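Backbone description:
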Amino acid sequence: MRLSHTLQSYAPTQEKAPHSHDDFVQLFYIHHGCGIASSDNRSFLAVGGQLLWVPLHRLHYLKVLKDTRVSIIHAHPDMMPNFHHDMGIISTNRLMVQVMAEIDTQGGGV
């Protein structure tokens, strides 16, 4: 796997158990909704329009606060720059927001 994309919907109070990945990095784009995103070092409110980075081997988890739709991108570490050593927010621009909105629209009821 070099790069894969999944569109996922989460219900309020749903939680993703703490886990890490040894073979890929992740990017999460929050189309709408919000949750508490946490790593073993920090926690923050993740809201619609944000792009989150999770590096290799970083323990992370999510507690959903309201209906949330997320694009999950898995990539081989050689395909992505190492944005940071911990999970964090990456800035976006209008083009990315428009592309992600189209992906959400095309994703239908996924």
